[in-house]
Amino acid sequence: MTDARKADLGRRVVEERRRHEETQKDLAQAIKTTVQTINGWESGRRAPSPDLMRRLAAHYNLTPDDLWPGWDENAVPRGGNRKSGPTNSQLLDRLLADFEAAERRLTEQGVEIARQSERIAVLEAAMMAEAARTGAATAALGEDEASRQRGDTDAPSSTSRPAPAA
């Protein structure tokens, strides 16, 4: 809605209010709104909501179109005072695009997590194999040490080497 259209309505509201010898306060009380709202219309800063437009016109025994020629209920934003912004459809499109982007990022992160999990599993398996290998060697060394402490001289030593052949 253009400022010129709002100014046209403002002039008409002032004309009707003065013709009926009303103050802004009188009009505001009659149609159950505030003086600030009436002032906003009259100064062309705001446009009435469809509900207030109908109440305003009915107060002066007019139709909304009589009061504001070319008035279209659908052209006036609900609430009347809000600045124009994106439509609900545009907001939903943005929300859907944001959701899909977040979903892609999470999927990519999930793939990366799966790759890292696979790497960890491979490393764990290698560590287990190394632990088993070194554990067996440690166990053999431990038996040799235990035999020595017991004084078993006949026990084979895993660290002893066969005598060289003559």
Task: Count structural domains.
Answer: 2
CATH superfamily of the largest domain: lambda repressor-like DNA-binding domains
Radius of gyration of CA atoms, rounded to a whole number = 44 Å
Overall, the morphology is rod-shaped
Number of helices in the DSSP assignment:
6
Average pLDDT over all residues:
79
Total E-strand runs: 0
Identify low-pLDDT runs: 77-82
Q: What this model shows, in words?
A:
This protein is mainly α and 166 residues long. It has 2 domains: 73 residues, 434 Repressor (Amino-terminal Domain) (Orthogonal Bundle), CATH 1.10.260; 66 residues. The protein is 66% helix and 0% strand. It contains 6 helices and no strands. Helix 1 packs across helix 3 and helix 2 packs across helix 3. The longest helix has 63 residues. The protein starts with a helix and ends in a 16-residue tail after the last helix. About 4% of the residues have low confidence.
In short:
This protein has 166 residues and is an all-alpha fold. The chain has helices spanning 3-19, 24-30, 35-42, 50-59, 64-67, 88-150.
List keywords for this structure.
166 residues, mainly alpha, 434 Repressor (Amino-terminal Domain), 2 domains, 6 helices
